[in-house]
Amino acid sequence: MASAFAWTWWTPITENNSTQLRVGRLTKAHGLKGAIKLEMFTDDPERRFVPGAVFTLQVPTSSPWHGKTLELTELRWYNGHPVGFFKGVSDRTAAEGLVKAILWIDLDEAEASDEEDAWYDHQLVGLRVVRDGEQVGTVRLVEHLPAQDLLIVKTPSGEVMVPFVKAIVPSVDLEAGVVTVTPPAGLFEDLPEEPSDAADAASEPPGEGVAE
Asked: Do residues 90 and 129 share a domain?
């Protein structure tokens, strides 16, 4: 989910009329028994990565895992990094065949969070972005960074990255389809250039320069 207060890692896709959420990526084989290091895209790993959890795999069509799912049997932590063991992945060769695979889960709409000011990415994409009562663009994408979330806003002059923080995005109205922004000067428009010293000197009336 995305929030104006905290960063999270959620990106939706739609498959077979159901919404899926990206929750992780397999990054590197670990050891000789099929373990694989994980990069997690969820702020709730204790609920998402439990034994028996089943993930839809995003892999190349040439992969033998294409169209298959992957079941987690165990999650361990090594030096602060999550490492997963999966059903049917029993050795390093099998693990290496899954490196770079993206893990997705089906979204259960009943799980929608009751947390205030928190939204799923797919709820934000497409909303109108309004400043001072005027539309300046639409939300094209939500980017998730360790420090904060960013709204990628499509405007007539290009894309603008808006920090998704309360001071800049004070309001999200899903029913109205509107994100209200109060951006600092220069975020949606170019600031006028500072006059150069030469221009300042040229604009001074004769006789008012610095005396030698």
From this structure: no
For residues 161 and 88, state if they share a domain. Answer: no
pLDDT in tens, 171-193: 999 999 999 999 988 888 765 66
Question: For 43-56, what is each residue's pLDDT tens digit?
Answer: 678 888 999 999 99
pLDDT digits (tens, 9 = 90+) for 108-164: 655 544 445 567 778 899 999 999 999 999 999 888 765 678 899 999 999 999 999
**Any idea what the CATH number is for the domain that residue 52 is in?**
2.40.30.60
pTM of structure? 0.54
Q: Is residue 176 located within the same domain as residue 84?
A: no
Nearest Cα residue to 37 out of 88, 80, 93: 80
Q: Domain with 149 in it: what CATH number?
A: 2.30.30.240
